[in-house]
Design brief:
Elements (H helix, E strand, L loop, with lengths): L12 H17 L9 E6 L5 H12 L3 E6 H4 L7 H9 L4 E5 L3 H10 L4 E3 L7 H15 L6 E5 L4 H13 L2 E5 L8 H8 L6 E5 L2 H5 L4 E4 L11 H8 L6 H5 L6 E4 L11 H4 L6 H19 L6
Parallel strand pairs: 1-2, 1-3, 3-4, 5-6, 5-8, 6-7, 8-9
Bound molecules: phosphoric acid mono(formamide)ester and norvaline (NVA).
Length: 304
Protein backbone atom coordinates (compact mmCIF):
# COMPACT_ATOMS: atom_id res chain seq x y z
CA UNK A 1 0.00 0.00 0.00
CA UNK A 2 1.11 3.57 -0.74
CA UNK A 3 3.09 5.08 2.12
CA UNK A 4 0.89 8.19 2.25
CA UNK A 5 -2.88 8.65 2.24
CA UNK A 6 -3.25 12.16 0.88
CA UNK A 7 -6.16 11.25 -1.38
CA UNK A 8 -8.51 8.34 -1.99
CA UNK A 9 -6.69 8.18 -5.34
CA UNK A 10 -3.75 6.67 -3.41
CA UNK A 11 -5.80 3.48 -2.94
CA UNK A 12 -6.37 0.72 -5.49
CA UNK A 13 -9.64 -1.25 -5.30
CA UNK A 14 -7.79 -4.10 -3.54
CA UNK A 15 -6.16 -1.75 -1.05
CA UNK A 16 -9.42 -0.02 -0.24
CA UNK A 17 -11.08 -3.36 0.32
CA UNK A 18 -8.16 -4.42 2.50
CA UNK A 19 -8.52 -1.28 4.65
CA UNK A 20 -12.19 -2.09 5.19
CA UNK A 21 -11.45 -5.77 5.91
CA UNK A 22 -8.84 -4.81 8.49
CA UNK A 23 -11.16 -2.20 10.00
CA UNK A 24 -13.92 -4.76 10.42
CA UNK A 25 -11.50 -7.28 11.96
CA UNK A 26 -10.03 -4.68 14.32
CA UNK A 27 -13.48 -3.45 15.29
CA UNK A 28 -14.28 -6.93 16.53
CA UNK A 29 -10.95 -8.05 18.00
CA UNK A 30 -9.21 -4.77 18.86
CA UNK A 31 -6.26 -5.43 16.57
CA UNK A 32 -3.58 -5.83 19.21
CA UNK A 33 -0.81 -3.29 19.73
CA UNK A 34 1.25 -3.40 16.51
CA UNK A 35 2.18 0.30 16.77
CA UNK A 36 3.73 0.02 20.22
CA UNK A 37 6.22 2.86 20.69
CA UNK A 38 5.11 4.77 17.58
CA UNK A 39 3.80 8.33 17.59
CA UNK A 40 1.56 10.10 15.11
CA UNK A 41 1.75 13.91 14.98
CA UNK A 42 -1.63 15.58 14.43
CA UNK A 43 -0.93 18.88 12.71
CA UNK A 44 -4.31 20.61 12.69
CA UNK A 45 -4.92 24.07 11.22
CA UNK A 46 -8.71 23.80 11.55
CA UNK A 47 -11.03 22.76 14.39
CA UNK A 48 -12.00 19.11 14.86
CA UNK A 49 -13.81 16.75 17.19
CA UNK A 50 -14.18 13.45 15.34
CA UNK A 51 -10.95 13.47 13.37
CA UNK A 52 -8.74 14.45 16.28
CA UNK A 53 -10.31 12.04 18.76
CA UNK A 54 -10.49 9.17 16.28
CA UNK A 55 -6.81 9.52 15.36
CA UNK A 56 -5.77 9.84 19.00
CA UNK A 57 -7.85 6.83 20.03
CA UNK A 58 -6.80 4.77 17.02
CA UNK A 59 -3.13 5.27 17.93
CA UNK A 60 -3.81 4.53 21.60
CA UNK A 61 -5.72 1.35 20.75
CA UNK A 62 -2.84 0.20 18.52
CA UNK A 63 -0.35 0.67 21.35
CA UNK A 64 1.09 3.96 20.10
CA UNK A 65 0.43 7.58 20.91
CA UNK A 66 -0.55 10.83 19.21
CA UNK A 67 0.81 14.33 19.59
CA UNK A 68 -1.58 17.21 18.87
CA UNK A 69 0.05 20.24 17.26
CA UNK A 70 -2.21 23.27 16.88
CA UNK A 71 -1.74 25.18 13.65
CA UNK A 72 -1.47 28.55 15.37
CA UNK A 73 1.49 27.27 17.33
CA UNK A 74 3.41 25.60 14.52
CA UNK A 75 2.50 28.39 12.07
CA UNK A 76 3.49 26.17 9.17
CA UNK A 77 4.56 28.25 6.18
CA UNK A 78 4.92 31.37 8.34
CA UNK A 79 7.22 30.56 11.23
CA UNK A 80 9.07 28.15 8.95
CA UNK A 81 8.59 26.51 5.55
CA UNK A 82 6.37 23.44 5.14
CA UNK A 83 9.35 21.39 4.01
CA UNK A 84 11.21 22.15 7.24
CA UNK A 85 8.21 21.15 9.36
CA UNK A 86 8.10 17.89 7.40
CA UNK A 87 11.76 17.15 7.95
CA UNK A 88 11.82 18.09 11.64
CA UNK A 89 8.75 15.98 12.45
CA UNK A 90 10.20 13.07 10.46
CA UNK A 91 13.15 12.95 12.87
CA UNK A 92 10.90 12.58 15.89
CA UNK A 93 7.61 10.86 15.02
CA UNK A 94 6.58 7.88 12.89
CA UNK A 95 3.71 9.54 11.01
CA UNK A 96 1.91 12.84 10.38
CA UNK A 97 -1.82 13.46 10.03
CA UNK A 98 -2.52 16.93 8.70
CA UNK A 99 -5.71 19.02 8.55
CA UNK A 100 -5.26 22.16 6.52
CA UNK A 101 -6.70 24.41 3.80
CA UNK A 102 -4.77 23.98 0.56
CA UNK A 103 -4.33 20.44 -0.65
CA UNK A 104 -0.88 21.49 -1.98
CA UNK A 105 0.24 21.79 1.62
CA UNK A 106 -0.64 18.13 2.26
CA UNK A 107 1.23 17.16 -0.90
CA UNK A 108 4.27 19.24 0.06
CA UNK A 109 4.40 17.68 3.51
CA UNK A 110 4.18 14.23 1.96
CA UNK A 111 6.92 15.06 -0.51
CA UNK A 112 9.36 16.25 2.15
CA UNK A 113 8.48 13.96 5.06
CA UNK A 114 10.36 10.69 5.50
CA UNK A 115 7.36 9.29 7.37
CA UNK A 116 3.80 8.58 6.12
CA UNK A 117 1.46 11.55 5.78
CA UNK A 118 -2.32 11.15 6.11
CA UNK A 119 -4.78 13.79 4.93
CA UNK A 120 -7.07 14.55 7.88
CA UNK A 121 -9.05 16.99 5.67
CA UNK A 122 -8.04 19.58 3.12
CA UNK A 123 -10.24 21.80 0.98
CA UNK A 124 -9.91 19.19 -1.73
CA UNK A 125 -10.49 15.89 0.05
CA UNK A 126 -11.46 14.13 3.26
CA UNK A 127 -10.33 10.58 2.50
CA UNK A 128 -10.56 9.19 6.04
CA UNK A 129 -14.20 10.28 6.22
CA UNK A 130 -14.99 8.47 2.98
CA UNK A 131 -13.37 5.26 4.29
CA UNK A 132 -15.49 5.41 7.46
CA UNK A 133 -18.58 6.04 5.34
CA UNK A 134 -17.93 3.03 3.13
CA UNK A 135 -17.30 0.95 6.23
CA UNK A 136 -20.69 2.07 7.56
CA UNK A 137 -22.42 1.16 4.30
CA UNK A 138 -20.71 -2.22 4.18
CA UNK A 139 -21.80 -2.99 7.72
CA UNK A 140 -25.38 -2.01 6.96
CA UNK A 141 -25.78 -3.71 3.58
CA UNK A 142 -23.21 -6.51 3.85
CA UNK A 143 -21.71 -5.37 0.54
CA UNK A 144 -20.73 -2.24 -1.35
CA UNK A 145 -20.79 -3.24 -4.99
CA UNK A 146 -23.93 -2.03 -6.73
CA UNK A 147 -25.12 0.27 -3.91
CA UNK A 148 -26.32 3.74 -4.87
CA UNK A 149 -25.04 6.57 -2.65
CA UNK A 150 -26.66 9.94 -3.29
CA UNK A 151 -24.97 13.02 -1.89
CA UNK A 152 -27.04 16.19 -1.75
CA UNK A 153 -25.19 19.48 -1.35
CA UNK A 154 -22.00 21.23 -2.35
CA UNK A 155 -19.49 19.38 -4.53
CA UNK A 156 -16.85 19.84 -1.83
CA UNK A 157 -14.02 17.90 -0.17
CA UNK A 158 -16.38 15.31 1.33
CA UNK A 159 -18.23 14.81 -1.95
CA UNK A 160 -15.00 14.49 -3.93
CA UNK A 161 -13.55 11.80 -1.63
CA UNK A 162 -16.89 9.98 -1.66
CA UNK A 163 -16.92 10.08 -5.47
CA UNK A 164 -13.41 8.63 -5.73
CA UNK A 165 -14.02 6.06 -2.96
CA UNK A 166 -17.37 4.99 -4.38
CA UNK A 167 -16.06 4.28 -7.86
CA UNK A 168 -13.07 2.42 -6.36
CA UNK A 169 -15.42 0.28 -4.23
CA UNK A 170 -17.97 -0.44 -6.96
CA UNK A 171 -20.60 1.98 -5.59
CA UNK A 172 -22.71 4.20 -7.87
CA UNK A 173 -22.28 7.74 -6.54
CA UNK A 174 -24.57 10.63 -7.48
CA UNK A 175 -23.83 14.21 -6.45
CA UNK A 176 -26.92 16.47 -6.52
CA UNK A 177 -25.89 20.12 -6.20
CA UNK A 178 -27.22 23.58 -6.96
CA UNK A 179 -25.95 25.12 -10.16
CA UNK A 180 -22.55 26.65 -9.62
CA UNK A 181 -21.75 24.36 -6.69
CA UNK A 182 -21.24 21.06 -8.54
CA UNK A 183 -18.16 18.86 -8.41
CA UNK A 184 -15.77 20.12 -11.10
CA UNK A 185 -16.06 18.23 -14.39
CA UNK A 186 -12.43 17.12 -14.31
CA UNK A 187 -12.97 15.41 -10.94
CA UNK A 188 -15.92 13.51 -12.38
CA UNK A 189 -13.78 12.42 -15.32
CA UNK A 190 -11.01 11.41 -12.93
CA UNK A 191 -13.49 9.45 -10.79
CA UNK A 192 -15.07 7.77 -13.80
CA UNK A 193 -11.69 6.58 -15.04
CA UNK A 194 -10.81 4.84 -11.77
CA UNK A 195 -10.81 1.06 -11.58
CA UNK A 196 -13.30 -0.60 -9.23
CA UNK A 197 -16.50 -0.74 -11.21
CA UNK A 198 -18.54 2.05 -9.61
CA UNK A 199 -19.69 5.29 -11.18
CA UNK A 200 -19.81 9.01 -10.34
CA UNK A 201 -22.35 11.38 -11.81
CA UNK A 202 -23.38 14.95 -11.16
CA UNK A 203 -26.99 16.18 -11.34
CA UNK A 204 -28.94 19.25 -10.23
CA UNK A 205 -32.32 17.75 -9.28
CA UNK A 206 -32.20 16.34 -5.73
CA UNK A 207 -35.63 14.63 -5.84
CA UNK A 208 -35.01 12.47 -8.87
CA UNK A 209 -31.46 11.77 -7.65
CA UNK A 210 -32.64 10.19 -4.39
CA UNK A 211 -35.43 8.14 -6.00
CA UNK A 212 -33.42 4.91 -6.03
CA UNK A 213 -30.84 5.69 -3.34
CA UNK A 214 -29.65 3.17 -0.77
CA UNK A 215 -28.33 6.07 1.27
CA UNK A 216 -28.74 9.83 1.13
CA UNK A 217 -25.79 11.86 2.40
CA UNK A 218 -25.32 15.55 3.06
CA UNK A 219 -22.69 17.94 4.40
CA UNK A 220 -22.58 21.58 5.49
CA UNK A 221 -23.46 24.30 2.99
CA UNK A 222 -20.31 26.26 3.83
CA UNK A 223 -17.14 24.42 4.82
CA UNK A 224 -14.66 25.50 7.47
CA UNK A 225 -13.01 28.70 6.34
CA UNK A 226 -15.97 29.62 4.08
CA UNK A 227 -18.55 30.39 6.77
CA UNK A 228 -18.94 33.98 5.57
CA UNK A 229 -20.31 32.64 2.26
CA UNK A 230 -23.20 30.85 3.98
CA UNK A 231 -25.63 33.78 3.94
CA UNK A 232 -25.28 34.18 0.18
CA UNK A 233 -25.83 30.45 -0.37
CA UNK A 234 -28.95 29.82 1.69
CA UNK A 235 -31.42 30.44 -1.09
CA UNK A 236 -29.63 28.25 -3.63
CA UNK A 237 -29.16 25.40 -1.17
CA UNK A 238 -32.63 25.42 0.44
CA UNK A 239 -34.14 22.92 -2.08
CA UNK A 240 -31.23 20.58 -1.22
CA UNK A 241 -32.01 20.38 2.50
CA UNK A 242 -32.16 16.75 3.62
CA UNK A 243 -35.60 16.78 5.23
CA UNK A 244 -38.67 14.54 5.46
CA UNK A 245 -40.01 15.82 2.15
CA UNK A 246 -36.84 15.00 0.22
CA UNK A 247 -36.46 11.65 1.98
CA UNK A 248 -40.04 10.81 1.00
CA UNK A 249 -38.80 10.77 -2.60
CA UNK A 250 -36.24 8.07 -1.67
CA UNK A 251 -36.93 4.35 -1.08
CA UNK A 252 -38.46 3.69 2.34
CA UNK A 253 -35.30 1.96 3.60
CA UNK A 254 -32.74 4.54 2.39
CA UNK A 255 -30.25 5.50 5.12
CA UNK A 256 -29.53 9.07 6.22
CA UNK A 257 -25.84 10.01 6.36
CA UNK A 258 -23.84 13.08 7.42
CA UNK A 259 -20.15 13.39 8.25
CA UNK A 260 -20.90 15.82 11.15
CA UNK A 261 -20.79 18.40 12.57
CA UNK A 262 -24.29 19.09 11.25
CA UNK A 263 -26.00 22.44 11.10
CA UNK A 264 -29.51 21.31 12.00
CA UNK A 265 -32.10 23.41 10.19
CA UNK A 266 -29.68 24.15 7.34
CA UNK A 267 -28.47 21.15 5.30
CA UNK A 268 -30.41 18.61 7.41
CA UNK A 269 -33.31 18.66 9.82
CA UNK A 270 -33.06 17.68 13.44
CA UNK A 271 -35.85 15.18 12.79
CA UNK A 272 -33.82 13.24 10.21
CA UNK A 273 -30.61 13.15 12.23
CA UNK A 274 -32.56 11.73 15.14
CA UNK A 275 -34.58 9.30 13.00
CA UNK A 276 -34.20 5.51 12.92
CA UNK A 277 -32.75 5.81 9.42
CA UNK A 278 -29.84 7.96 10.55
CA UNK A 279 -26.43 6.27 10.76
CA UNK A 280 -24.48 9.44 11.51
CA UNK A 281 -23.06 8.22 14.82
CA UNK A 282 -22.02 4.91 13.25
CA UNK A 283 -20.14 7.00 10.70
CA UNK A 284 -18.44 8.91 13.53
CA UNK A 285 -17.45 5.77 15.40
CA UNK A 286 -16.21 4.17 12.22
CA UNK A 287 -13.74 7.02 11.75
CA UNK A 288 -11.75 5.41 14.56
CA UNK A 289 -11.94 1.87 13.17
CA UNK A 290 -11.13 2.87 9.60
CA UNK A 291 -8.18 4.97 10.72
CA UNK A 292 -6.94 2.17 12.96
CA UNK A 293 -6.82 0.04 9.83
CA UNK A 294 -5.11 2.73 7.76
CA UNK A 295 -2.52 3.47 10.44
CA UNK A 296 -1.74 -0.19 11.08
CA UNK A 297 -1.24 -0.73 7.37
CA UNK A 298 0.83 2.33 6.50
CA UNK A 299 2.85 2.61 9.69
CA UNK A 300 3.98 -0.94 9.11
CA UNK A 301 2.30 -2.68 11.99
CA UNK A 302 0.56 -5.37 9.96
CA UNK A 303 0.99 -6.94 6.53
CA UNK A 304 -0.87 -5.34 3.62
N1 LIG B 1 -16.36 14.68 10.22
C1 LIG B 1 -15.27 15.33 10.71
O1 LIG B 1 -14.21 15.35 10.11
O2 LIG B 1 -15.48 15.94 11.92
P1 LIG B 1 -14.46 16.90 12.65
O3 LIG B 1 -14.34 18.16 11.81
O4 LIG B 1 -15.07 17.19 14.00
O5 LIG B 1 -13.13 16.22 12.77
N1 LIG C 1 -16.93 20.02 4.24
C1 LIG C 1 -16.68 20.20 5.66
C2 LIG C 1 -16.40 18.90 6.32
C3 LIG C 1 -16.22 18.97 7.82
C4 LIG C 1 -15.89 17.66 8.43
C5 LIG C 1 -15.53 21.17 5.87
O1 LIG C 1 -14.54 21.09 5.13
O2 LIG C 1 -15.61 22.00 6.75
Amino acid sequence: MNRDLTSILDLSPDELERVLDVAIAMKSDGGGTPLHGQTLALLFEKPSLRTRVSFEMAMRRLGGSALYLAGHEVQMGEREPVRDVARVLSRMVEGIAVRTFEHERVAELAEWADVPVVNALSEHEHPCQALADLLTLRERFGRLRGLRLVYVGEGNNVARSLAFASVTAGVDFVCASPEGYELPADDLVKASELPGGGSATQVNDPESAVSDANAVYTDVWASMGFETELQGRLEAFQPYQLNAELLAAAPADALVMHDLPAHRGEEITDELIESDRSVVFDQSENRMHAQQAVLSLILGGSPV
